[in-house]
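Q: Given only this backbone (413 positions), what sequence would you predict?
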């Protein structure tokens, strides 16, 4: 093992990555992941996520000395050389981020992720369903488009939505809605408290009285169907589509009261701890802290935990906003307010060269075209579907991007 540590060099290392075949993933000709990696998709098989990182559930594999080593084990051989001295100390000798390509043909579950403190509590309480004690702030960057629910609607719009549907008013209770309107003022803290209280009423009613929930959803469905197709809002159309699959699922209510976002290529959203959300359809590059902690509360056959979702819900319920489109620039760094990762998107219509510094571990993912990486006297060409680990000991290298290339670089700040 000691000799292997000494042979880790200041050079890029090719990664092989794991595919997750969740049911909501894209299939056939619409499957982005097989196209990216250059193989024919199996008929009917979903290709949902490509994991690029060192999470123990599906660690990438490093090509090293004519062998293959899981990335989480590879990092242990020389954490300071691979991660960087400060990053190795800060993140306990572990790669702190997880990069993904996600391809959703159907809606993912209504979900949120705990902060560090609550992640540790949930893991200790229920390690089966919460397999690690890390938080999971994440960014989603649209490859082509993304339709998503993220956070609650603005306060006035949230209340108007509730009052719009008799079924929803019946589920919550008119007295609670009236009291909420009386309490409302200009304080964002007060508005957040009211929204959380009304959302809690909806979620708890779904558990305590399933028949009441079923009646409410049937009433809302009837109200929507009584309007002409032209009069229906986008979220109402989504409600009807999802109701066919999930029936009386409380997640359908979230479709109406959450903030609906439609992202174009290069646009992004950042989701911090406790922000309820669901990706409905689209292809994205996603980066997050190295965690698989997900608290689900609807639109899924998987384990749902409404009490825990309410427990981790953020006090800041303002609508999630889109981050600026990177189409205005060939090189865009998405500013995220966390210490686990930075992410930059490179998109070039003509051949370009960049000299890049590397103070900590980085991973480059090539989505289109190819990149020639020059380090010392050597050159490595990486093409569409390739990913490479750039250890911290590789302080500087140049990257020659081909015509019509698209790539993402993730680093530890």
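A: Predicted residues:
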């Amino acid at each position: 093992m000691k000799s292997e540590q000494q042979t880790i060099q200041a050079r890029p290392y090719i990664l092989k990555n794991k595919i997750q075949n969740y049911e909501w993933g894209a299939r056939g000709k619409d499957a982005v992941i097989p196209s990216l990696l250059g193989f024919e998709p199996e008929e009917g098989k979903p290709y949902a996520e490509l994991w690029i990182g060192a999470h123990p559930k599906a660690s990438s594999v490093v090509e090293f000395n004519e062998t293959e080593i899981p990335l989480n084990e590879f990092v242990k051989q020389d954490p300071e050389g691979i991660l960087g001295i400060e990053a190795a100390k800060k993140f306990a000798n572990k790669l702190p981020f997880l990069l993904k390509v996600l391809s959703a043909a159907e809606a993912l579950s209504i979900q949120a992720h705990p902060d560090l403190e609550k992640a540790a509590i949930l893991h200790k309480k229920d390690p089966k369903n919460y397999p690690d004690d890390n938080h999971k702030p994440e960014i989603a960057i649209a490859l082509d488009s993304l339709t998503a629910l993220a956070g609650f609607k603005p306060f006035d719009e949230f209340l108007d939505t509730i009052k719009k549907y008799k079924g929803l008013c019946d589920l919550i209770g008119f007295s609670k809605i009236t009291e909420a309107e009386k309490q409302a003022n200009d304080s964002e803290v007060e508005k957040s408290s009211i929204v959380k209280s009304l959302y809690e009423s909806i979620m708890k009613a779904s558990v305590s009285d399933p028949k009441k929930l079923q009646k409410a959803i049937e009433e809302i469905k009837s109200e929507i169907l009584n309007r002409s197709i032209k009069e229906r809002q986008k979220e109402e159309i989504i409600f009807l589509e999802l109701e066919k699959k999930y029936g009386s699922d409380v997640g359908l209510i979230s479709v109406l009261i959450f903030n609906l976002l439609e992202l174009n290529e290069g646009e992004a959203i950042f989701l911090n701890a406790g922000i309820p959300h669901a990706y409905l359809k689209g292809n994205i590059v996603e980066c997050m802290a190295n965690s698989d902690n997900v608290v689900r509360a609807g639109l899924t056959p998987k384990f749902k935990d409404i009490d825990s979702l309410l427990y981790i819900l953020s006090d800041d319920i303002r609508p999630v906003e889109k981050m600026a489109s990177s189409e205005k620039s060939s090189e865009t760094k998405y500013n995220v307010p966390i210490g686990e990762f930075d992410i930059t998107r490179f998109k070039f219509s003509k051949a370009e060269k960049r000299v890049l510094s590397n103070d900590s571990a980085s991973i480059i993912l090539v989505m289109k075209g190819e990149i020639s990486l020059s380090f010392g006297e050597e050159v490595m060409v990486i093409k569409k579907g390739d990913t490479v680990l750039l250890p911290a000991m590789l302080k500087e290298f140049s990257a020659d991007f081909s015509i019509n290339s698209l790539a993402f670089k993730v680093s530890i700040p």
